Request: fold
Amino acid sequence: MDHIVTVQDAVTAFADFVEPTDAELDAIETEMPVILADIDLLDAHIATLDHTPSELDQRRIRRARRRALAARVELINHTVTASGVGA
Reply:
């Protein structure tokens, strides 16, 4: 009969390396407006999955798409300016 042993020590041995670094957290914070805008766009699409989109639904999707694109443009412009490209 084989005994089942836990592998907790092997799994938790690298727990310190599992946490995101400060640079990764800063990158997530920088990209948060894009992430939130994408969530709004997904919410707008999800709301129309079970029915034909009305004019109001279509406007909500268009507005969400514009906000998502604007957030991406802002992130790209911020990234390019911060890196010194085009300055």
In short: Helices lie at 8-12, 15-18, 22-46, 55-83. Residues 4 and 44 are 48 Å apart (CA to CA). The chain has four helices and no strands. The chain has a mean pLDDT of 86.
